[in-house]
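hi! just following up on the protien thing from before. the input was this:
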Amino acid sequence: MKSVLLATVAAAALALPAHAQEAQEDSGEIVVTGQRAQQERAIDLKRDAIGVIDVAAADEIGRLPDRNVAEVVERLPGVGVTYDQGEGRYVAVRGVPSDLNNYTVNGIEVGNPDGTTRSLPLDVISGQLLNRVEIAKAKTADMDGQGIGGSINLVTQTAFDFDKPFNLLLNGQVGYQELNKKAPVRGDASVAGRFGSDEQFGLMLGMSYSDRTYASYGLYPDDWRTVAGAARGGLPTNIKYTDYSLHRERIGATGSLDWRPSDDHQFYVRGIWSKFTEDEYRQRYRLDFATAALVGTPAFTMNPDGLTGTVTGTANVGTGAGTGPERRQDLRQEYKEKSILAGMVGGSSTFGAIKADWTIARVHNEVYEPNQLWQFRCNPGTVDFDFTEKVFSAKPRTECATSQLNFRQYTEQLESGEEDIWQGRLDLTWTLDGLDAGSFVKAGAKFRATDKSFDAANDTWTRGSSANRFTLQQFGLAGDTVSVYPRNGDTPYSNGPTIDIDAIRTFTAANLSSAMFVKDAATSLSNATLNDMNIDEDVTALYAMANLRFGVVTVTPGLRYEHTGGTITGFRLETPLGGSASVVPDSRDIGYNDWLPSLIVRVDATPEVVVRLAYTKSMGRPNYNQLSPGGNLSYEPGTLPGTFEGSYSAGNPDLKPYRAHNLDGSLEWYFQRGGLVSIGAFAKFIDNPIFTNAYSMTNVTFAGRQYDVLGFSQPLNADKGEIYGIEVAYQQQFTFLPGLLSGFGVELNATLTDSSLDLPNGRSSTFPSQSKYLYGAQLFYQKGIVEASVAYHNTGYSLLSVAVAGTAEQDQYNDDLRRLDAKFSIAVLPNVTLFAEAQNLTDEPTRQYQWNRDHTGWVTQNERYGRTFYAGVSAKF
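and the predicted 3d structure came back as:
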């Protein structure tokens, strides 16, 4: 790894541009339009920062057809994004999973509406109304301690971000989607103005909206394992493929009221609201053809090629039973609603050499997610399978008829959660006149109080007795057969007979209390208990830092102290042998302290070259569900009188947070206005990584009972892990070229990362979400009335989940994801621009697989979304 990193550094150094130019004078404008100006602004923010940051700034956010904040920051160095249903959602920074980042709006922690983790789904927020997105990778002591990967800060617009006193920005577009021929729409509008005798007041209001109904096709085999004679080394138990229809709506608003009575005093009220809804309809075909009960029996035949074969069986008739392979048809209707509302009031006042900054903020997050699932099953008889292609096929010789598909299960799920966060911070900065300009001492305090609740229910009904069983045919519940295309141009997979959603809803509502549906009370109670929790988490922070400039050298030492405390309540489900389950609430206090030192040294070697060296310590708190003391306890009498044997799965309120010692070094050459070459290396030494572990204890007392043997499954802290990497970035505007060629520019970045993680069972692994290779390239053009750009980005394969209690054969991975997008615009009037966009031009699927990089043939997911095209108009006045 070290030799590869050194070779990368050397190659980047040799690639430094040959056409360095003098830096241009700053125009003084805070936000201006155009690709060139925004690239220059982002580079200036990076250059002026004390720590290590990367920035995507205003019009740069709209330069490419990114749908949300996750896809905006994906184009920055060291950032990998996990996609869900074709849109970027979770962000990993420098190989660190998304739940170990910190997420803020204007420096205020924003929390998370998405269930019980700390991974903020960034597809909730549109990027169109932001001034910029900042990712801090080496943080100073005045920043939150949470964020081992980085701190992602969303900066909203204000009226003082514009050079003109009045600004009106409008954008509207309509699209075309390749798979379902639908027309998505997007639009945003913002108005910003300064008023008063000295333009001391500023008001900015903005709204954004997007509406998209689209389709995706997916293939999802499960549970691959080694099978002798199989050309891929193994087989999955089944093949599943789906026809998804999704409706996603995203609506957001921002506002800012600012008062700047003088240069020494500024006050503001700001807010952001975003709501994301998704209505998902899914028909899933599943065929269990290679289960452990079939492989190795006379019914299962693998041909000598190891790729094809046959599984024999007997088809069922009506509500009767057959033998051999089993076929399922599932219909799921799911609705998701997530919202973020953040408001803040603050100000800044200067009194001589002392400056005071203060903020008080309130954040309210919500999630609401009901869904319904119906399942029917049959035995189709003989099945043929073919693994010649990576996206393989398996199908019955005779598909089940509607009269063979028997009702098996119905579930109603309802998950909801709320999060309320109060925050306040005060920062005091003393300017040091005895040192070079820019020297200061800074101290401050912050308090955050979080109240989070989550409630989950999933009632389950199964089939009735033989006399009360029914099929799709009996009550007219069948829907049309549909075609599924997991790969472009392939022969389609046939998904049918399907379940008619209107018919099954009406039938279920009329008959749910009848003998045809039997409620599974034990499962329903378990589902309504184990994931529920309430959390009160308070964080108190104090810090002190200095920024000391000595000529070309700036030294920034700092120390931050954070106390995390609170109470978490879960619910334990106790089930004695032959008895009824009971729900037992369990509350635990949590508390720990963290001292987080930092030291950053900046050397301005020349007016164009900046060197940074940094040591920082950061932390990552456990996810809320990992801390919950609730769980499932099942037990029965033991071998000795008065003792028991049992099993217990739960969270662990005694978990320690992740703690990381971080080393950073970078060399940055700002060789012209809008030009940058940077090389950065980083290392993270991480203590207390968290994994779910399974173990047994003997002769133990638990919950008031004595157990001969008690099996535990809960998250535990492992020992340590390490992440190493190097980032290389190059940006240049080719203004030195003649004529029309002077409009071109390029932006390149690449990140090489490696990691190691010691697991509790003695295995070693990489960190989840750590991609070995991340790289991207953008070619843009701006000349006269024309702007254009094309961008390619590759997120390399990464570990999705590790089987701590199993073997490496059970580990899950995300495969490489490649994205090619383009945009073209032309100014038809001085203030009006027409544009066209294209997304996913290569029709790239998202793919997951099981085991390791040498076993990508063990595909567990292959989702295809097709291409999307937009045309629109934007206006600025």
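The chain has seven helices and 49 strands.
The first strand starts at residue 52 and ends at 57.
cheers
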